[in-house]
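ARCHIVE CARD
SHELF: 3
SLOT: left
DATA:
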Amino acid sequence: MLHYGKRTLYGKIQRLPIRFFRHKNRTSYHIISVHFWTQPAKQSTYTTSKEISPKLFQNSLTVTNTQFLSKTKTKTKIAMSTLKIQPTAFALSSSVRQLGFFNLKLPRNCVASSNHFSRYGTRRALTVSMSTTSSTPLEVCVKSSTTAPNKPGDCPFCQRVLLTLEEKHLPYDLKLVDLAHKPDWFLKLNPGGKVPVIKLNEKWISDSDVIAQALEEKYPDPPLGTPPEKASVGSKIFSTFIGFLKSKDPSDGTEKALISELSSFNNHIKDNGPYVNGKEVSAVDLSLAPKLYHLEIALGHYKKWSVPDSLPHVKSYMKAIFSRDSFIKTRAQPEDVIAGWRPKVLG
């Protein structure tokens, strides 16, 4: 039951005739129809649709009717109403009649499917599915910053794990570890002393590759998997970057090797971009992005070198991935990156 001004809108949480779906390569949804009634005896139906972007996440599913249509012979009335549905671990639905254009604020663990619609007079059933997400924050240990308090350090593998958690909208408890003085509590749970490590299913797991795969299997929505034929795209950029960064001989071919790898990546993004797997980020982007961030900062500082203008798609890719909220939130301080590479460059 939904209160609307002085009137009451009736409905059932068991059946919700709204449908929307997520395209394979885009994060937008179509609302097919919403039905509600002001009196059980007076029922009429209008259907419409609106494409929206699910960037706003709350703890409940919110349907806001911004153009409520109440048609009579002489006029159409415009009004407002809001319906909230608390998320659960199973499919949700409700009944409502009479409809307008709606905005949807989806919970983080909400996914759905749809079919096509007709504009007027067709009743459709909406299914909202809730994926198995973590209500308890996941414990994750990463390197701490040496230049700023309460900030992640310069480990690109740690950032990859944090990016995965952010892009999957999973809550996590960030534990920062000073690798120069590893605390006893950290060595007790992780005798190897390496980061990143995360606690999944009551076990501590290390290695960013293993962690990313485990998170994908346990929390499949939103999917971040990369097709096998694209999984190795850009995989040699990091090693050639290190070779060039450490090089003392301008003619040893290390710069040429790096440009060759970047050129291959540039061609791939040109044909497949804006990200490695198309319009949406995937696991390979979350692995590559922190390494390109290190490349940009370290080579700029130690060699006064930057990605050539002849590789515009690499530059646009870096700009796009570096500007994502998940990346901004988890990136290392430039001073940490510079300090982290200093021993390799000067040593």
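SLOT: right
DATA:
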Amino acid sequence: MSYPPYPVSQQPADSQPDYPAALSSLQHMDVDSLKEILNNEDKFDNFIQNLQQIKNLHEQKELIMASNKSLAEYNLSQEPLVKEQKAQLLEKFQAASSLAEKVKGLKAEIDNKSGKMTPDSLLILLEAACSEAEEESEEMVESFMSSQDNSLDEFLNMYKDKRKLAHMRRIKIDKMRELLARNNQQRRSDQVLSPVRQAPLPPRPRT
């Protein structure tokens, strides 16, 4: 996995010029040299450009420009990946939305038919809800990986809650399956122990 270039730190805009360093080079000049610098614009500009602080600013400017260029190139290189991840996230979101609608439709159908939930119906709803929670947790990971604005702590807290919800639903599903299997086994055992009596044969007609 590639990472963006590390940004170059910039000098604060309100930093004060280094006056002592600039004046130290003037202290060794005689009066004529100082007058020549003050009266000659080219020499004055040359003096300013040769100050160490000005040289440092030029170097820092070049570093910042190079860093910005590298960052822009990196962002462009990541654009296809970001588009692909967004498309996958949209597809998963649509699948999760479709699953949620199916769950709502199934619940409404069960409520209309019987007015209450049977164990088999509850198991189906739990399985659908568990799948929905797992899908949402995967979408959270995809969304976090494709975005640089999300907080890691916030993501971990939300992801932990979502996985905990899916885990609890999975436990309920396993318990419900166990209860249903036990009930079915008990029902079969009762049928073996208490066989249904056959109806008596009708009387024979008299000849």
